[in-house]
Protein backbone atom coordinates (compact mmCIF):
# COMPACT_ATOMS: atom_id res chain seq x y z
CA UNK A 1 0.00 0.00 0.00
CA UNK A 2 1.30 3.44 -0.99
CA UNK A 3 0.47 6.40 1.29
CA UNK A 4 0.87 10.03 0.23
CA UNK A 5 0.63 13.01 2.54
CA UNK A 6 -0.22 16.46 1.13
CA UNK A 7 -1.52 19.99 1.80
CA UNK A 8 -4.23 19.81 -0.81
CA UNK A 9 -5.89 17.02 -2.74
CA UNK A 10 -8.12 17.73 -5.72
CA UNK A 11 -10.49 14.97 -6.74
CA UNK A 12 -11.46 15.09 -10.44
CA UNK A 13 -9.38 16.12 -13.44
CA UNK A 14 -11.88 17.98 -15.61
CA UNK A 15 -11.58 21.73 -16.22
CA UNK A 16 -12.55 22.51 -12.62
CA UNK A 17 -9.99 20.14 -11.06
CA UNK A 18 -7.17 21.12 -13.43
CA UNK A 19 -7.86 24.84 -12.91
CA UNK A 20 -7.90 24.40 -9.14
CA UNK A 21 -4.58 22.57 -9.38
CA UNK A 22 -3.12 25.38 -11.51
CA UNK A 23 -4.18 28.09 -9.04
CA UNK A 24 -2.86 26.01 -6.12
CA UNK A 25 0.59 25.22 -7.55
CA UNK A 26 1.03 28.82 -8.68
CA UNK A 27 0.73 29.66 -4.97
CA UNK A 28 3.26 26.93 -4.10
CA UNK A 29 0.75 24.64 -2.38
CA UNK A 30 1.72 20.94 -2.30
CA UNK A 31 -1.03 19.49 -4.49
CA UNK A 32 -2.13 15.99 -5.47
CA UNK A 33 -4.64 15.69 -8.33
CA UNK A 34 -6.59 12.45 -8.54
CA UNK A 35 -8.70 11.76 -11.60
CA UNK A 36 -9.87 8.90 -13.71
CA UNK A 37 -10.25 11.10 -16.81
CA UNK A 38 -13.78 9.84 -17.49
CA UNK A 39 -16.29 12.39 -18.90
CA UNK A 40 -13.57 15.00 -19.34
CA UNK A 41 -13.37 14.23 -23.05
CA UNK A 42 -16.72 16.02 -23.36
CA UNK A 43 -15.11 19.39 -22.72
CA UNK A 44 -15.59 21.30 -25.98
CA UNK A 45 -12.54 23.53 -25.64
CA UNK A 46 -14.74 26.65 -25.75
CA UNK A 47 -14.71 28.82 -22.65
CA UNK A 48 -18.28 29.87 -21.90
CA UNK A 49 -18.92 32.40 -19.14
CA UNK A 50 -22.65 33.06 -19.40
CA UNK A 51 -24.71 32.89 -22.56
CA UNK A 52 -28.35 32.77 -21.53
CA UNK A 53 -31.01 32.69 -18.84
CA UNK A 54 -33.31 29.74 -19.29
CA UNK A 55 -37.00 29.88 -18.38
CA UNK A 56 -40.41 30.42 -19.95
CA UNK A 57 -38.55 32.67 -22.37
CA UNK A 58 -34.82 32.66 -23.14
CA UNK A 59 -32.73 35.77 -22.50
CA UNK A 60 -29.50 35.71 -24.49
CA UNK A 61 -26.60 37.70 -23.13
CA UNK A 62 -24.21 39.27 -25.62
CA UNK A 63 -22.63 40.88 -22.58
CA UNK A 64 -22.09 38.07 -20.05
CA UNK A 65 -21.17 40.58 -17.33
CA UNK A 66 -24.59 42.19 -17.59
CA UNK A 67 -26.06 38.69 -17.19
CA UNK A 68 -23.91 38.01 -14.16
CA UNK A 69 -25.05 41.29 -12.58
CA UNK A 70 -28.67 40.19 -13.08
CA UNK A 71 -28.14 36.67 -11.65
CA UNK A 72 -28.81 37.31 -7.93
CA UNK A 73 -32.34 38.46 -8.64
CA UNK A 74 -33.27 35.73 -11.10
CA UNK A 75 -31.14 32.75 -9.93
CA UNK A 76 -30.16 33.49 -6.30
CA UNK A 77 -28.44 30.12 -5.78
CA UNK A 78 -26.17 30.33 -8.85
CA UNK A 79 -22.47 29.75 -7.99
CA UNK A 80 -21.43 33.03 -9.67
CA UNK A 81 -23.27 34.86 -6.87
CA UNK A 82 -20.42 33.81 -4.52
CA UNK A 83 -17.94 35.73 -6.69
CA UNK A 84 -17.24 39.30 -7.73
CA UNK A 85 -17.23 39.85 -11.50
CA UNK A 86 -13.57 40.87 -11.17
CA UNK A 87 -12.71 37.49 -9.62
CA UNK A 88 -14.38 35.62 -12.48
CA UNK A 89 -12.49 37.74 -15.00
CA UNK A 90 -9.17 37.28 -13.18
CA UNK A 91 -9.63 33.51 -12.91
CA UNK A 92 -10.37 33.19 -16.59
CA UNK A 93 -7.52 35.49 -17.58
CA UNK A 94 -5.03 33.46 -15.51
CA UNK A 95 -6.05 30.19 -17.15
CA UNK A 96 -6.01 31.73 -20.64
CA UNK A 97 -2.58 33.26 -19.96
CA UNK A 98 -1.19 29.92 -18.79
CA UNK A 99 -2.61 28.14 -21.85
CA UNK A 100 -1.21 30.75 -24.24
CA UNK A 101 2.17 30.50 -22.53
CA UNK A 102 2.10 26.77 -23.23
CA UNK A 103 1.27 27.28 -26.91
CA UNK A 104 -2.54 26.97 -26.84
CA UNK A 105 -3.72 30.48 -27.60
CA UNK A 106 -7.28 31.67 -27.01
CA UNK A 107 -8.86 34.66 -28.74
CA UNK A 108 -11.44 37.25 -27.83
CA UNK A 109 -9.47 39.04 -25.12
CA UNK A 110 -9.80 42.45 -26.74
CA UNK A 111 -13.54 42.50 -26.09
CA UNK A 112 -15.54 41.70 -23.01
CA UNK A 113 -18.45 40.38 -25.03
CA UNK A 114 -19.67 36.96 -26.07
CA UNK A 115 -19.08 35.93 -29.65
CA UNK A 116 -21.23 33.81 -31.94
CA UNK A 117 -19.54 30.71 -33.22
CA UNK A 118 -20.88 28.31 -35.84
CA UNK A 119 -21.10 24.71 -34.64
CA UNK A 120 -21.00 21.40 -36.53
CA UNK A 121 -24.78 20.88 -36.65
CA UNK A 122 -25.16 24.27 -38.35
CA UNK A 123 -26.32 26.28 -35.38
CA UNK A 124 -24.51 29.02 -33.58
CA UNK A 125 -23.44 29.20 -29.98
CA UNK A 126 -22.66 32.14 -27.72
CA UNK A 127 -19.34 31.75 -25.99
CA UNK A 128 -16.71 33.99 -24.42
CA UNK A 129 -13.26 32.78 -25.41
CA UNK A 130 -12.47 30.51 -28.35
CA UNK A 131 -9.30 28.71 -29.36
CA UNK A 132 -7.38 30.98 -31.74
CA UNK A 133 -7.76 28.29 -34.41
CA UNK A 134 -11.53 29.02 -34.44
CA UNK A 135 -11.35 32.81 -34.30
CA UNK A 136 -11.56 33.61 -38.08
CA UNK A 137 -14.82 31.62 -38.00
CA UNK A 138 -16.35 34.28 -35.74
CA UNK A 139 -15.67 36.95 -38.36
CA UNK A 140 -16.76 34.68 -41.24
CA UNK A 141 -20.05 33.87 -39.47
CA UNK A 142 -20.71 37.53 -38.68
CA UNK A 143 -20.09 38.75 -42.24
CA UNK A 144 -21.35 35.59 -44.00
CA UNK A 145 -18.33 35.86 -46.26
CA UNK A 146 -17.65 33.37 -49.08
CA UNK A 147 -16.40 30.27 -47.31
CA UNK A 148 -15.45 26.74 -48.30
CA UNK A 149 -16.04 24.00 -45.72
CA UNK A 150 -14.01 20.84 -46.31
CA UNK A 151 -15.01 17.53 -44.75
CA UNK A 152 -13.74 13.97 -45.13
CA UNK A 153 -15.09 10.65 -46.39
CA UNK A 154 -15.60 8.37 -43.39
CA UNK A 155 -15.69 11.08 -40.69
CA UNK A 156 -19.02 10.51 -38.94
CA UNK A 157 -18.74 13.39 -36.45
CA UNK A 158 -19.11 16.17 -39.01
CA UNK A 159 -20.99 16.70 -42.23
CA UNK A 160 -20.33 19.70 -44.46
CA UNK A 161 -23.51 19.20 -46.54
CA UNK A 162 -25.61 19.07 -43.35
CA UNK A 163 -24.02 22.32 -42.16
CA UNK A 164 -24.60 23.98 -45.53
CA UNK A 165 -28.24 22.91 -45.71
CA UNK A 166 -28.86 24.22 -42.16
CA UNK A 167 -27.38 27.60 -43.01
CA UNK A 168 -28.30 27.89 -46.71
CA UNK A 169 -30.86 30.66 -46.24
CA UNK A 170 -28.69 32.92 -44.11
CA UNK A 171 -25.31 32.12 -45.66
CA UNK A 172 -25.59 31.53 -49.42
CA UNK A 173 -21.81 31.91 -49.87
CA UNK A 174 -21.08 28.78 -47.84
CA UNK A 175 -19.92 25.86 -50.02
CA UNK A 176 -18.73 22.39 -49.13
CA UNK A 177 -16.40 19.81 -50.63
CA UNK A 178 -15.74 16.28 -49.38
CA UNK A 179 -12.30 14.80 -49.89
CA UNK A 180 -10.37 11.74 -48.80
CA UNK A 181 -8.12 12.50 -45.82
CA UNK A 182 -4.46 11.78 -46.71
CA UNK A 183 -3.22 8.25 -46.01
CA UNK A 184 -6.65 6.85 -45.04
CA UNK A 185 -7.41 4.79 -48.16
CA UNK A 186 -9.38 1.67 -47.27
CA UNK A 187 -10.45 2.95 -43.84
CA UNK A 188 -14.24 3.10 -43.80
CA UNK A 189 -14.53 5.10 -40.56
CA UNK A 190 -12.29 7.90 -39.34
CA UNK A 191 -11.90 9.32 -35.84
CA UNK A 192 -11.24 13.04 -35.39
CA UNK A 193 -8.64 12.42 -32.68
CA UNK A 194 -6.61 10.12 -34.98
CA UNK A 195 -6.76 12.60 -37.85
CA UNK A 196 -5.63 15.39 -35.53
CA UNK A 197 -2.65 13.30 -34.46
CA UNK A 198 -1.72 12.45 -38.02
CA UNK A 199 -1.70 16.14 -39.00
CA UNK A 200 1.27 16.60 -36.70
CA UNK A 201 3.22 15.06 -39.60
CA UNK A 202 4.43 17.57 -42.19
CA UNK A 203 4.00 15.02 -44.95
CA UNK A 204 0.29 14.62 -44.14
CA UNK A 205 -0.19 18.40 -43.99
CA UNK A 206 1.46 18.80 -47.35
CA UNK A 207 -0.85 16.18 -48.88
CA UNK A 208 -3.91 17.80 -47.29
CA UNK A 209 -2.97 21.23 -48.64
CA UNK A 210 -2.35 19.66 -52.05
CA UNK A 211 -5.82 18.08 -52.07
CA UNK A 212 -7.61 21.25 -50.96
CA UNK A 213 -5.76 23.86 -53.11
CA UNK A 214 -7.62 23.09 -56.41
CA UNK A 215 -10.99 23.37 -54.62
CA UNK A 216 -10.58 27.00 -53.54
CA UNK A 217 -12.44 29.34 -55.88
CA UNK A 218 -12.71 32.92 -54.67
CA UNK A 219 -13.43 31.85 -51.09
CA UNK A 220 -12.31 34.28 -48.40
CA UNK A 221 -12.35 31.60 -45.70
CA UNK A 222 -11.57 27.90 -45.56
CA UNK A 223 -13.03 25.84 -42.71
CA UNK A 224 -12.22 22.35 -41.44
CA UNK A 225 -13.80 20.30 -38.68
CA UNK A 226 -11.81 20.89 -35.48
CA UNK A 227 -8.97 18.41 -35.99
CA UNK A 228 -6.06 20.57 -37.14
CA UNK A 229 -3.47 18.89 -34.95
CA UNK A 230 -3.33 17.74 -31.38
CA UNK A 231 -0.25 19.53 -30.01
CA UNK A 232 0.54 22.35 -32.43
CA UNK A 233 -2.82 23.45 -33.78
CA UNK A 234 -1.87 27.15 -33.95
CA UNK A 235 1.17 26.43 -36.06
CA UNK A 236 -0.71 23.96 -38.31
CA UNK A 237 -3.52 26.45 -38.98
CA UNK A 238 -1.00 29.21 -39.81
CA UNK A 239 0.94 26.88 -42.09
CA UNK A 240 -2.23 25.89 -44.01
CA UNK A 241 -3.10 29.59 -44.40
CA UNK A 242 0.30 30.27 -45.85
CA UNK A 243 0.17 27.33 -48.22
CA UNK A 244 -3.40 27.99 -49.39
CA UNK A 245 -3.62 31.81 -49.29
CA UNK A 246 -6.98 31.99 -47.47
CA UNK A 247 -7.99 32.52 -43.88
CA UNK A 248 -8.33 29.06 -42.25
CA UNK A 249 -10.42 28.15 -39.21
CA UNK A 250 -11.78 25.15 -37.30
CA UNK A 251 -15.47 24.41 -36.63
CA UNK A 252 -16.32 22.74 -33.28
CA UNK A 253 -17.68 19.21 -33.73
CA UNK A 254 -19.30 16.48 -31.63
CA UNK A 255 -17.40 14.99 -28.66
CA UNK A 256 -14.87 13.58 -28.12
CA UNK A 257 -13.69 17.04 -29.01
CA UNK A 258 -10.09 17.58 -30.14
CA UNK A 259 -10.00 21.21 -28.84
CA UNK A 260 -11.32 19.96 -25.48
CA UNK A 261 -8.56 17.35 -25.31
CA UNK A 262 -5.97 19.97 -26.26
CA UNK A 263 -7.19 22.15 -23.42
CA UNK A 264 -7.03 19.38 -20.81
CA UNK A 265 -3.68 18.03 -22.03
CA UNK A 266 -2.12 21.47 -22.12
CA UNK A 267 -3.26 22.23 -18.57
CA UNK A 268 -1.92 18.84 -17.49
CA UNK A 269 1.42 19.57 -19.17
CA UNK A 270 1.72 22.94 -17.40
CA UNK A 271 1.05 21.30 -14.03
CA UNK A 272 3.70 18.64 -14.60
CA UNK A 273 6.27 21.44 -14.64
CA UNK A 274 5.69 22.23 -10.95
CA UNK A 275 7.70 20.32 -8.35
CA UNK A 276 4.93 20.78 -5.73
CA UNK A 277 2.49 18.92 -8.00
CA UNK A 278 1.76 15.22 -8.25
CA UNK A 279 -0.84 13.57 -10.43
CA UNK A 280 -2.50 10.23 -9.76
CA UNK A 281 -4.05 9.56 -13.18
CA UNK A 282 -6.55 6.89 -14.04
CA UNK A 283 -7.59 6.46 -10.40
CA UNK A 284 -10.82 7.07 -8.53
CA UNK A 285 -11.31 8.00 -4.91
CA UNK A 286 -13.59 5.26 -3.69
CA UNK A 287 -13.82 6.18 0.02
CA UNK A 288 -13.13 9.27 2.13
CA UNK A 289 -13.24 9.96 5.84
CA UNK A 290 -12.09 12.70 8.21
CA UNK A 291 -9.79 11.91 11.13
CA UNK A 292 -10.00 13.57 14.56
CA UNK A 293 -7.03 15.69 13.40
CA UNK A 294 -9.38 17.10 10.70
CA UNK A 295 -7.18 15.59 7.99
CA UNK A 296 -8.93 13.63 5.27
CA UNK A 297 -8.01 10.06 4.44
CA UNK A 298 -8.82 9.18 0.84
CA UNK A 299 -8.72 5.64 -0.49
CA UNK A 300 -7.96 5.28 -4.18
CA UNK A 301 -9.09 2.45 -6.33
CA UNK A 302 -6.05 1.60 -8.42
CA UNK A 303 -7.22 -1.44 -10.33
CA UNK A 304 -6.77 -3.71 -7.32
CA UNK A 305 -3.97 -1.93 -5.43
CA UNK A 306 -5.24 0.55 -2.88
CA UNK A 307 -3.37 3.78 -2.46
CA UNK A 308 -4.11 6.11 0.45
CA UNK A 309 -3.82 9.90 0.45
CA UNK A 310 -3.81 11.91 3.68
CA UNK A 311 -4.65 15.52 3.02
CA UNK A 312 -5.12 18.70 5.05
CA UNK A 313 -7.63 20.08 2.58
CA UNK A 314 -9.70 18.60 -0.24
CA UNK A 315 -11.31 20.20 -3.29
CA UNK A 316 -14.05 18.06 -4.79
CA UNK A 317 -14.27 18.56 -8.58
CA UNK A 318 -15.92 15.31 -9.60
CA UNK A 319 -18.50 16.72 -12.02
CA UNK A 320 -21.98 15.41 -12.63
CA UNK A 321 -23.61 12.19 -13.84
CA UNK A 322 -21.32 11.39 -16.80
CA UNK A 323 -18.20 11.28 -14.61
CA UNK A 324 -20.18 9.78 -11.70
CA UNK A 325 -19.55 12.65 -9.29
CA UNK A 326 -23.32 12.56 -8.89
CA UNK A 327 -25.21 9.29 -9.02
CA UNK A 328 -28.93 8.93 -9.63
CA UNK A 329 -30.76 6.32 -7.58
CA UNK A 330 -34.48 5.65 -7.44
CA UNK A 331 -35.97 8.76 -5.80
CA UNK A 332 -32.71 10.54 -5.01
CA UNK A 333 -29.42 11.86 -6.32
CA UNK A 334 -26.24 11.04 -4.34
CA UNK A 335 -22.84 12.64 -4.16
CA UNK A 336 -20.48 9.70 -4.62
CA UNK A 337 -17.35 10.37 -2.50
CA UNK A 338 -18.43 12.03 0.79
CA UNK A 339 -22.16 11.37 0.53
CA UNK A 340 -22.79 15.11 0.77
CA UNK A 341 -26.39 16.33 0.65
CA UNK A 342 -27.57 17.02 -2.89
CA UNK A 343 -30.26 19.65 -3.42
CA UNK A 344 -32.79 18.97 -6.07
CA UNK A 345 -34.53 22.07 -7.36
CA UNK A 346 -37.14 20.04 -9.29
CA UNK A 347 -40.75 20.99 -8.82
CA UNK A 348 -42.96 18.14 -7.53
CA UNK A 349 -40.23 15.59 -7.91
CA UNK A 350 -39.94 16.19 -11.67
CA UNK A 351 -36.37 15.50 -12.82
CA UNK A 352 -36.81 15.72 -16.56
CA UNK A 353 -39.34 17.47 -18.74
CA UNK A 354 -41.00 15.62 -21.58
CA UNK A 355 -39.35 17.62 -24.35
CA UNK A 356 -35.56 17.15 -24.44
CA UNK A 357 -35.16 20.69 -25.82
CA UNK A 358 -37.54 22.35 -23.32
CA UNK A 359 -36.13 25.86 -22.97
CA UNK A 360 -36.73 25.86 -19.23
CA UNK A 361 -34.07 23.13 -18.95
CA UNK A 362 -34.40 19.92 -16.94
CA UNK A 363 -34.55 20.27 -13.13
CA UNK A 364 -32.02 17.41 -12.75
CA UNK A 365 -29.44 19.63 -14.46
CA UNK A 366 -29.68 22.10 -11.59
CA UNK A 367 -29.30 19.48 -8.87
CA UNK A 368 -26.00 19.50 -6.98
CA UNK A 369 -24.20 20.73 -3.90
CA UNK A 370 -25.09 23.90 -2.01
CA UNK A 371 -22.03 25.82 -0.83
CA UNK A 372 -21.16 28.81 1.34
CA UNK A 373 -19.50 31.90 -0.23
CA UNK A 374 -16.10 30.20 0.05
CA UNK A 375 -17.37 27.08 -1.77
CA UNK A 376 -17.61 24.76 1.23
CA UNK A 377 -20.53 22.30 1.01
CA UNK A 378 -23.49 22.85 3.34
CA UNK A 379 -25.80 20.50 5.19
CA UNK A 380 -29.57 20.73 4.81
CA UNK A 381 -29.74 23.35 7.57
CA UNK A 382 -27.23 25.58 5.76
CA UNK A 383 -24.24 24.82 8.03
CA UNK A 384 -20.73 24.22 6.69
CA UNK A 385 -20.07 20.45 6.86
CA UNK A 386 -16.25 20.40 6.95
CA UNK A 387 -14.10 23.49 7.39
CA UNK A 388 -11.43 22.15 5.00
CA UNK A 389 -13.56 20.63 2.21
CA UNK A 390 -14.48 22.65 -0.92
CA UNK A 391 -16.58 21.81 -3.98
CA UNK A 392 -16.14 23.36 -7.42
CA UNK A 393 -17.29 23.03 -11.03
CA UNK A 394 -20.32 21.39 -12.50
CA UNK A 395 -21.19 19.47 -9.31
CA UNK A 396 -22.51 22.74 -7.84
CA UNK A 397 -26.28 23.24 -7.65
CA UNK A 398 -28.35 25.86 -9.49
CA UNK A 399 -26.09 26.06 -12.51
CA UNK A 400 -27.57 24.49 -15.62
CA UNK A 401 -24.52 24.84 -17.86
CA UNK A 402 -26.39 23.37 -20.84
CA UNK A 403 -29.05 26.05 -20.94
CA UNK A 404 -27.09 28.91 -19.39
CA UNK A 405 -23.82 28.31 -21.28
CA UNK A 406 -21.69 28.84 -18.20
CA UNK A 407 -19.83 25.49 -17.85
CA UNK A 408 -16.17 26.43 -18.15
CA UNK A 409 -16.66 29.82 -16.48
CA UNK A 410 -18.23 28.31 -13.36
CA UNK A 411 -15.57 25.58 -13.28
CA UNK A 412 -12.63 28.00 -13.48
CA UNK A 413 -14.02 30.78 -11.30
CA UNK A 414 -15.23 28.48 -8.50
CA UNK A 415 -11.82 26.75 -8.53
CA UNK A 416 -10.12 30.15 -8.21
CA UNK A 417 -12.25 31.14 -5.23
CA UNK A 418 -11.93 27.78 -3.48
CA UNK A 419 -8.13 27.82 -3.75
CA UNK A 420 -8.07 31.40 -2.48
CA UNK A 421 -10.27 30.31 0.44
CA UNK A 422 -7.97 27.34 1.19
CA UNK A 423 -5.05 29.69 1.57
C1 LIG B 1 -21.26 17.16 -24.30
C2 LIG B 1 -20.79 18.32 -23.49
C3 LIG B 1 -20.50 19.54 -24.12
C4 LIG B 1 -20.07 20.64 -23.38
N1 LIG B 1 -19.82 21.81 -24.02
C5 LIG B 1 -19.39 22.89 -23.30
C6 LIG B 1 -19.08 24.12 -23.94
O1 LIG B 1 -19.18 24.27 -25.16
N2 LIG B 1 -18.62 25.15 -23.17
C7 LIG B 1 -18.48 25.04 -21.81
O2 LIG B 1 -18.06 26.01 -21.15
N3 LIG B 1 -18.79 23.88 -21.17
C8 LIG B 1 -19.24 22.82 -21.89
N4 LIG B 1 -19.53 21.64 -21.25
C9 LIG B 1 -19.50 21.60 -19.80
C10 LIG B 1 -18.14 21.52 -19.33
O3 LIG B 1 -17.49 20.42 -19.95
C11 LIG B 1 -18.15 21.34 -17.81
O4 LIG B 1 -19.06 22.21 -17.22
C12 LIG B 1 -16.81 21.70 -17.33
O5 LIG B 1 -15.91 20.81 -17.98
C13 LIG B 1 -16.67 21.55 -15.84
O6 LIG B 1 -16.62 20.28 -15.54
P1 LIG B 1 -15.99 19.70 -14.22
O7 LIG B 1 -14.51 19.78 -14.24
O8 LIG B 1 -16.70 20.29 -13.06
O9 LIG B 1 -16.48 18.22 -14.37
P2 LIG B 1 -16.06 17.08 -15.45
O10 LIG B 1 -15.57 17.67 -16.72
O11 LIG B 1 -17.24 16.18 -15.49
O12 LIG B 1 -14.84 16.41 -14.71
C14 LIG B 1 -14.99 15.67 -13.53
C15 LIG B 1 -13.95 14.58 -13.55
O13 LIG B 1 -13.90 13.94 -12.27
C16 LIG B 1 -13.83 12.54 -12.46
N5 LIG B 1 -14.30 11.86 -11.25
C17 LIG B 1 -15.56 11.69 -10.80
N6 LIG B 1 -15.58 11.01 -9.65
C18 LIG B 1 -14.28 10.74 -9.35
C19 LIG B 1 -13.65 10.03 -8.26
N7 LIG B 1 -14.35 9.50 -7.27
N8 LIG B 1 -12.30 9.93 -8.26
C20 LIG B 1 -11.56 10.48 -9.27
N9 LIG B 1 -12.11 11.14 -10.34
C21 LIG B 1 -13.46 11.27 -10.35
C22 LIG B 1 -14.72 12.31 -13.67
O14 LIG B 1 -14.49 11.07 -14.27
C23 LIG B 1 -14.28 13.48 -14.55
O15 LIG B 1 -13.11 13.16 -15.27
C24 LIG B 1 -19.91 20.52 -21.97
C25 LIG B 1 -20.18 19.29 -21.35
C26 LIG B 1 -20.63 18.21 -22.08
C27 LIG B 1 -20.95 16.94 -21.36
Q: Indicate the proportion of strand residues.
A: 15-25%
The CATH architecture of the largest domain would be: 3-Layer(bba) Sandwich
**Count of all domains:** 2
Main beta sheet: 7 strands, mixed
Indicate the percent of residues in helices.
Answer: 25-40%
Order of helices and strands: EHEEEHHEEEEHEHEHHEHEHEEEEEEEHH
| Estimated structural class | alpha/beta
What shape does the CA trace take?
Answer: globular
Helix count, per DSSP? Answer: 11
Termini Cα gap: 30 Å
- Uncertain runs: none
CATH superfamily descriptor of the largest domain: FAD/NAD(P)-binding domain
Report Rg. 22 Å
- Ligand catalogue: flavin-adenine dinucleotide
- The count of β-strands is 19
CATH class of the largest domain: Alpha Beta
Mean pLDDT: 93
Provide structural commentary:
By secondary structure, the protein is α/β, with parallel strands linked by helices. It has 2 domains: 2-103 and 261-422, FAD/NAD(P)-binding domain (3-Layer(bba) Sandwich); 120-252, Rossmann fold. It contains 11 helices and 19 strands. Strands 1, 2, 13, 14, 15, 16 and 19 form a 7-stranded mixed sheet that branches. A 4-stranded parallel sheet has the order 10-9-11-12, sandwiched between helices. A hairpin with a 2-residue loop joins β15 (296-302) and β16 (305-316). α1 (15-26) runs parallel beside α9 (258-272) and α1 (15-26) runs parallel beside α11. The radius of gyration is 22 Å and the shape is globular. The two termini are 30 Å apart. The structure holds flavin-adenine dinucleotide. Flavin-adenine dinucleotide binds at residues 11-17, 34-40, 42-44, 46-48, 255, 284-285, 317-320, 322-325, 336-337, 393-394, 401, 407-408, 411.
Amino acid sequence: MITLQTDLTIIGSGIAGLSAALFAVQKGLGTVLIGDGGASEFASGLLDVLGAFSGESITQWDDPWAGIAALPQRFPGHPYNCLQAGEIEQALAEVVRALSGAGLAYAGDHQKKNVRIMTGPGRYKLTYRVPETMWPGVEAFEDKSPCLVVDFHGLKDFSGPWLRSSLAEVWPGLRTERIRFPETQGKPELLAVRLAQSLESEQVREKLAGAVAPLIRGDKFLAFPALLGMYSSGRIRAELEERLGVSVFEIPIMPPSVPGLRLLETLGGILNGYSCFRRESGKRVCRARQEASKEFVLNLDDGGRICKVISRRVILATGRFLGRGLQAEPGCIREAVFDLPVVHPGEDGVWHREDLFDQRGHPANRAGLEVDPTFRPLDRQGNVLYENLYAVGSILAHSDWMRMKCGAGVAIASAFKAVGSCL
